[in-house]
Write a structure and sequence with these properties.
The chain is of the alpha/beta class. It has three domains: about 150 residues, Immunoglobulins (Immunoglobulin-like, Sandwich), CATH 2.60.40.10; about 375 residues, Alpha-Beta Barrel (TIM Barrel), CATH 3.20.20.80; about 100 residues, Golgi alpha-mannosidase II (Immunoglobulin-like). It contains 14 helices and 28 strands. The strands form seven sheets. The chain has an eight-stranded parallel beta barrel with strand order 9-10-13-16-17-18-19-20, surrounded by four helices. A hairpin with a 2-residue loop joins strand 1 and strand 2. The protein is elongated. It starts with about 50 loop residues before the first helix and ends with a strand. The N terminus is likely disordered.
């Protein structure tokens, strides 16, 4: 069993000059106090280490799950002298120095010591370097390569276009004890999961026309937290906040995996935002990208002059879709880097979940590759066995150490067992995005309304496999960019029909089994595609249709959270049953959502055509008294308000088996929910 040794108690300070380095491979551990001395002022680096033998073994074996406590920069005091300890993994380097403002970017004055255990770790303590110093590692690498790299483990970076790391800790005085004690229930699979997906820069800007204007984490907190709370979302998902050089990557091409982006403030400012969400009763999910990274010169690519973090074989190491590079999941040090990184965000920033990006591309060697562009694994298959092992280890580690959180996979294929435990042969995620549902649903709703009777299977097919995985239904940022049009303009018909169709789609989404995710702006009918350079069209809320659509989504969030039948068994086959599929020509479907207590059951009616259905009849079993608790055609949602059910009529069919007939009116292009 691997030991994750995070204690520093057994580490001893060491301070010897470069001329004395041969005296001891372990620094001052074998030297008497009177032998210690400062190096000459030209090269004031002390040979100091935070690593134990267990640390090295675990790091190399891919089982060091808190490497951030060892690598990077650490402000501390050695021999009553304040300074900063630096440690970097550069196994093919022949010489590594720390360069920064503190030494006028001198590439020779502050050389680190390489450990003699062949771990490839370079380290040293530089007196006088304190928090807030910009720095890089100057590396003499493979074949004479000379590179200046940011620190892979740094917690803070310069704001782009500058690319240096900054010495900084992530200490924060948390006040979310109440949340942390109860979050196991909040984040349980039996609880409501209504997720609001947000791109922090473009949700709202100080100047909507200036892409260089950003709200700070504090300003975002003041605006976003109460909005998410008011709208009734249970969780917020932040598109990648890890430091990244190019805004146009939306954060998915990262260079600072251990640092909240400095665009909006400090790590402590980011922590305060998470703290505020927790005080509001809202969970925080982060997008996390262990699938690929960019080739920026200051980043991970060719870190020490050769393929340190990425596969050397381009058939495995290069992403043709994203022009980026793939982590070498076989290498223990890379596994330690990545799994430690996931743990870092849970431990240091109290996050409630990670949504892992592009899982399909990690699992499959042939992902986006033509024949001849990939090589089968040792068993002749297309699975990347190393990536599969890494993902399983990741999920096992997260759920072992943080059992009250969730990991969520963006996985778009039929790979089995994505959200099944590893001990049951699965990959180990808590949830998986239901991409098939999303594509089928959008394709169905885009159709001419009167063609829908011929395509009913497209809207009902997901019910045949909804319990194969723990599915999250995603209407994400990917569906409202690159010419796909915003949600409101995917809908057919005139203005009223477009809004009615979108309310109907959301009603279907919120009453379908599974967790929910909605991208920002879709809740009020944004009329433009999402643009990362701008901000949401908040001015649309001055128009009645948009403001009332927003109100509809708010009430759907409340309905989903309030009605136990809509979430208690959302991932179980017993949480859903068809009531009526025999009205294909009328384009009406009826289903029941089932709670742990059958008295909590709800019945959902969806009328997919712009025609009302008066005195519509269905036969059900159960209680005799039913009431309408939601009607997407209500005037408060910009509906007609003409067709509703102040009283649902019932007729007993059979007292013996509890069968009765429900008779109600269905509005056009609307969903009705009975309790």
């Amino acid at each position: 069993m691997a030991v994750d040794n995070t204690s520093d108690s057994n580490n001893k300070a060491s301070a010897i000059s470069t001329t004395d380095i041969k005296k001891s491979a372990t620094g001052l551990a074998s030297m008497k106090y009177e032998e210690m001395h400062f190096v000459d002022s030209a090269k004031p680096v002390w040979n100091y280490s935070l690593f134990s033998e267990d640390d090295i073994n675990n790091f190399q074996n891919g089982t060091h799950y808190s490497a951030y406590n060892k690598f990077g920069n650490k402000q501390l005091e050695v021999l009553k002298t304040a300074g900063t300890y630096f440690a970097v993994w550069a196994p093919n380097a022949t010489y590594v120095t720390v360069i920064g403002h503190f030494n006028n970017w001198n590439k020779t004055s502050h050389a680190l010591f390489v450990r003699l255990d062949k771990s490839g770790i370079w380290e040293g303590f530089i007196p006088g370097v304190q928090e807030g110093e910009a720095y890089k590692y100057h590396i003499h690498g493979f074949n004479g390569a000379l590179v200046d790299k940011g620190d892979p483990y740094a917690h803070y970076w310069e704001k782009r276009p500058y690319t240096a790391s900054i010495t900084r800790n992530v200490d924060y005085e948390w006040t979310d004890e109440k949340w942390m004690k109860k979050r196991a229930a909040h984040n349980a699979l039996t609880s409501a999961w209504s997720v609001y997906e947000v791109h922090l820069a473009s949700w709202m800007r100080p100047s909507k026309y200036d892409e260089e204007s950003y709200n700070t984490y504090e300003q975002i907190t003041e605006r976003l937290v109460p909005y998410v709370k008011e709208m009734g979302f249970t969780h917020v998902e932040l598109m990648p906040v890890m430091e990244h050089p190019f805004d146009g990557s939306w954060g998915y091409q990262g260079t600072g995996y251990y640092a909240p982006t400095s665009r909006f403030g400090s790590p402590q400012d980011f922590a305060a935002m998470v703290d505020a969400f927790h005080h509001a009763g809202i969970g925080v999910i982060l997008d996390w990208v262990p699938s690929h990274f960019p080739y920026d010169s200051h980043g991970l690519y060719m870190f020490d002059g050769t393929h340190t973090y990425e596969y050397a074989d381009r058939r495995k190491g290069f992403h043709p879709d994203w022009n980026s590079y793939i982590f070498n999941y076989k290498r223990g040090e890379v596994k330690s880097f990545l799994i430690s990184n996931a743990r870092f965000w849970f431990e240091k920033f109290h996050i409630d979940g990670i949504r892992v990006d592009a899982v399909s591309s990690m699992l499959r060697l042939d992902y986006s590759r033509k024949e001849g562009e990939w090589e089968p694994n040792e068993f002749g298959g297309n699975g990347n066995l190393e990536a599969i092992a890494f993902i399983k280890d990741l999920n096992e580690t997260i759920y072992r150490d943080f059992p009250d959180v969730q990991t969520i996979a963006e996985e778009s294929t039929d790979w089995p067992g994505i959200s099944r435990p590893t001990f049951a042969g699965g990959i180990g995620f808590g949830m998986k995005w239901m991409m098939g549902w999303m594509h089928d649903t959008l394709n169905y709703f885009k159709r001419d309304q009167f063609a829908r009777p011929h395509h009913q299977d497209q809207i009902t097919f997901s019910m045949a496999y909804f319990n194969d995985e723990n599915f999250m239904l995603p209407i994400s940022h990917d569906e409202v960019v690159h010419g796909k049009s915003p949600m409101i303009y995917k809908m057919p018909g005139d203005e009223w029909q477009k809004f009615a169709n979108l309310r109907l789609l959301y009603t279907y989404m919120y009453t379908h089994p599974g967790a929910k995710l909605l991208f920002m702006g879709s809740e009020f009918g944004q009329t433009k595609e999402w643009d990362y350079k701008g901000e949401l069209q908040w001015e649309l809320l001055s128009h009645t249709p948009h403001r009332l659509l927003q109100h509809c989504v708010k009430d759907l969030n409340l309905l989903y959270s309030k009605e136990p039948a809509l979430h208690e068994k959302q991932f179980e086959v017993g949480g859903f049953e068809w009531v009526d599929l025999n009205h294909r020509n009328e384009c009406v479907i009826v289903y029941r959502r089932i709670g742990l207590d059958r008295k909590d059951d709800v019945i959902v009616f969806l009328n997919m055509l712009p025609e009302p259905r008066m005195d519509f009849e269905v036969t059900v079993k159960g209680k005799r008294n039913w009431e309408e608790v939601f009607n997407s055609d209500a005037t408060k949602y910009y509906g007609t308000g003409d067709v509703y059910n102040p009283k649902v009529r019932t007729e007993i069919v059979s007292k013996e088996d509890g069968t009765l007939k429900l008779i109600l009116n269905l509005p056009p292009l609307a969903g009705v929910v009975l309790r």
